[in-house]
Amino acid sequence: MSAAIAHDYLNQRGGAERVVLELARIFPGAPVYTSLYRPDSTFPEFKQLDVRTSPLDRLPVDARFRALLPLYPASFRAVSPLHEDVVVSSSSGWAHGIRTGPSSIHLVYCHTPARWLYETDAYLPGGRRRALTAPLRAALGRWDRNAAHRADLYLANSEHVARRIRAAYGIDARLLHPPVRTDGLHPAKRGERLLVISRLLPYKRVDLVVDAATEAGLGLDVVGSGPSLEDLRSRAGPSVTFHGRVEEEALRELLLGCRALCFPGSEDFGIVPVEANAAGKPVIGFAEGGVLETQVEGRTATFFGEATPAAALDAIRRADELETSPEEIARNAARFSPEVFRSGLLAAIEEAKRLRSAG
């Protein structure tokens, strides 16, 4: 069975890129098609793969890649069609638009329907900006919905995303949680400092935890980079340390040594909370999104329902009172292993074949 993988863009280090690496392990030798690839901005393992880029890759952009929004449909059209037996698109907005040959099975592993189309208020703050981009978003919305309905089967990374897929496309997606590799992580006793691992973007709400830690004088380590970094630095007290982007070994050490992981944003799934569990650490999370599916309140996590530093501080206090052992917390992470993902993906391919035959 020949296979190909498609992904929106390879210039970040996040959960979606980890999924692509796992897909590459399931399909050794499969080419990875993407709009643009920046080896120094994503995981180094991609250098070992057959990454094939669109003409968009020639443009000198990296951090400002979102400004190319109107060009991404054309970039995937330029590398289409793919004729492998199975094509798996890892998509949060673009890769699902890749075209395949008539005999190919196309599965879309959806991290989220495009935020810039379906969560416009959060993604494009400011009424003037939304008004100026309305004609473009209308055209891209038509392209997006047409692309979604060309796939043989949709897979959602969480129930939260499955509901959004149903609302956006009218498609009932099959649930398949993403794989979480926990190599080098093991149950460890809780340390003294809180930890945040996140891209530093406004909607991630890292400011809530920075403000809470500053107010209470709590030790906090912040790992990640992004446009919100300078604002966060300006509001942080001396107990908060910013590490920027760190390598995998240093990240594991921070997870193993932390007091708890703070997860203040609303994510579609959220791999980092599962990794924290594998290290025996509880999660302090905002009560929305995929974290409600991966965590058990009062056992592996405490939640806060108001986006305020006071509510976050209350959840931190309750997390300190949890009596769950690191070993029991770590067992929760096993539900999201790469082996479970592989089995589910191969079963989904067989389902797509049956649906194709029946149709």
Number of helices: 14
Low-confidence stretches: none
Structural class: alpha/beta
CATH class label of the largest domain: Alpha Beta
Shape: globular
Query: What is the mean predicted local confidence, pLDDT?
Result: 93
End-to-end Cα distance, whole Å, is: 21 Å
- Quickly count the domains: 2
N-to-C series of helices and strands: EHEEHEEHHHEHEEHEHEHEHEHEHHH
Helix % is 25-40%
Query: Strand content of the residues, in percent?
Result: 15-25%
Radius of gyration: 20 Å
In CATH, the architecture of the largest domain is: 3-Layer(aba) Sandwich
DSSP, total strands: 13
Look up the CATH topology of the largest domain. Rossmann fold
CATH-wise, what's the superfamily of the largest domain?
Answer: Glycogen Phosphorylase B
Largest sheet: 7 strands, parallel
How would you concisely characterize the structure shown here?
Helix content is 39%, strand content 15%.
Layout: helices, strands, pairs:
Blueprint: E1 3-7, H1 15-26, E2 32-34, E3 51-53, H2 72-78, E4 86-91, E5 105-110, H3 115-118, H4 120-123, H5 127-148, E6 153-156, H6 159-169, E7 174-175, E8 194-197, H7 206-216, E9 220-223, H8 229-235, E10 240-244, H9 248-257, E11 260-263, H10 271-278, E12 283-286, H11 291-294, E13 301-304, H12 309-320, H13 326-333, H14 338-358
Helix pairs in contact: 7-12, 10-13
Structure, explained:
The chain is an alpha/beta fold. The chain has two domains: 199 residues, Rossmann fold (3-Layer(aba) Sandwich); 142 residues, Glycogen Phosphorylase B (Rossmann fold, 3-Layer(aba) Sandwich). Helix content is 39%, strand content 15%. It is built from 14 helices and 13 strands. α8 links the parallel β9 and β10. α7 packs across α12 and α10 crosses α13. The longest helix has 22 residues. The two termini are 21 Å apart. The model has no long low-confidence stretch (mean pLDDT 93).
